[in-house]
């Protein structure tokens, strides 16, 4: 038992959608498995994925990931995958129902936040229930970040003046 725990791999981030946190207020996050083909997994392990324009959508009681680009595997043969195909996300039925009810509210969407491999080596997607930011919200975030940075600089420099 102890040997198995020592062999467990740490969680490894493959890709993160930083633009999503800039463009949306993330209300809630969920973890979902993702149904992939063999060459897609190999491409993911090389970090060849782009989440920037991706979104998730509930269709007929199932949830799918759209517009996420996974580059074709270079050593793949004629059975290589389609880079922009829609991919099924694996979630419990209750979670999907909860997501569907939240998305039906005005202005909410499902956005992929990051893709990673968990301890068992399985590919997972973290999706967020998000509401779009207005341009003034984005400016407020930038201003708050600048103020925080200035305060941190002032606090660091404060101890040097005592000499």
Secondary structure blueprint with pairings:
Layout (H helix, E strand, L loop, with lengths): L1 H6 L4 E5 L1 H6 E11 L3 H8 L3 E2 L4 E5 L2 E5 L2 E2 L16 E4 L2 H12 L3 E10 L5 E10 L2 H24 L5
Antiparallel strand pairs: 1-8, 2-7, 2-9, 3-6, 4-5, 5-7, 8-9
What do you see in this structure?
It is a single chain. This protein is an alpha+beta fold and 163 residues long. It has two domains: 124 residues, Small Protein B, Chain: A (Beta Barrel); 31 residues. Helices cover 34% and strands 33% of the residues. The protein is built from five helices and nine strands. β8 and β9 form a beta hairpin. The mean pLDDT is 81.
Gross morphology: globular
Overall pLDDT metric = 81
CATH architecture title of the largest domain: Beta Barrel
CATH classification, class level of the largest domain? Mainly Beta
User: Can you tell me the residue ranges where pLDDT is under 50 for at least 5 consecutive residues?
Assistant: none
Which structural class do you get from the secondary structure elements?
A: alpha+beta
Query: Helix coverage percent of residues?
Result: 25-40%
Continuous helix count: 5
Largest beta-sheet details? 7 strands, antiparallel
The first-to-last residue Cα distance is 55 Å
Q: What fraction strand?
A: 25-35%
Radius of gyration: 20 Å
